[in-house]
Write a structure and sequence with these properties.
This protein is mainly α and 93 residues long. The protein has helices spanning 3-27, 41-68, 71-92.
């Protein structure tokens, strides 16, 4: 990927996280029963979904590597595993 494209995607990702945080914790109304504690669902549920998706991708890419021995499949599985661990860390924190 080109360096300017990587930088642009990084800036857009940070902007998206900031906007989502402002909307989730500042704009969305409090839930009647649970109050402010319920807002953790705005972070927790999408993060665990991304982690599950990353580990499913790891499984598929690992099977593809074992079947074809194409090194790119192994590299993709490794990268997806890092993303999955990162998002699981977000959930644990």
């Amino acid at each position: 990927m080109r360096p300017h494209m990587t930088r642009s995607l990084g800036i857009l990702a940070v902007l998206g996280v900031v906007v989502a945080g402002v909307v989730a914790f500042g704009v969305a109304p409090r839930e009647v029963t649970q109050g402010t504690v319920q807002r953790i669902m705005y972070v927790h549920v999408p993060a665990i979904g991304v982690a599950y998706l990353a580990f499913i991708f790891v499984f598929v890419a690992s099977i593809a590597y074992l079947w074809t021995r194409v090194p790119e499949a192994d590299h993709a599985a490794h990268a997806a595993a890092e993303v999955g661990v990162l998002f699981l860390g977000v959930n644990i924190a």
